[in-house]
Amino acid sequence: NDANLVMFRHVLAPVDKAAAARLLEQTRALHKATTQSRDATFAAARRLRATIEDLLPTVAAFNYGPDSLDAILASIEADAKRGEYRDYASAEQVAMAAQSVVVAFENDGKVDGEKAQMLRNRLDALYATIKDENSWSVQNFNNALAALRAAAP
């Protein structure tokens, strides 16, 4: 499960878009390497680990401002547009990740009360799309995710 890696890439988006793109490329290379050989997998994993270790201090030192929320949600939404969240389990993970980010920004005082309420309402709508696995729709989920992101700026 690479959920933490995916979330790190999204949190990296407002810090360094080029690095976030590089992280995506290296993640895909790791996935591909797992179909090739053990040596290829370890080599790809080492490259990815080195990249992450290089980026951690930069991300830790970054002052995430209110505009950063939009950049993070835009990164998540871009994955949706690429078809990354085609199954129910992925959608659940994304909803939880989006909620974590919004709550972190709210708790840190990066969004005002009115904006926080709007974001919570959009999160509720996002969660409503994953309430029932049997009626889940990728289109409804992506629309709710886009609405959440639209409330961020």
What do these coordinates show?
With 153 residues, the chain is mostly helical. It has helices at residues 3-12, 17-33, 38-61, 66-81, 88-107, 113-128, 138-150. The protein starts with a helix and ends with a helix.
Reconstruct the topology from this structure.
Blueprint: H1 3-12, H2 17-33, H3 38-61, H4 66-81, H5 88-107, H6 113-128, H7 138-150
| Number of separate strands | 0
Shape: flat
Mean pLDDT: 94
Order of helices and strands: HHHHHHH
- Report the portion of residues in β strands: under 5%
- Our Rg estimate from Cα atoms comes to 16 Å
How many domain modules?
A: 2
How is the biggest beta sheet arranged? none
Helix content: over 70%
Structural class: mainly alpha
| Quaternary structure type | single chain
Short recap of the structure:
This protein is an all-alpha fold. It has 7 helices and no strands.
Question: Characteristics of this structure?
Answer:
mainly alpha; 0% strand; 7 helices; 76% helix
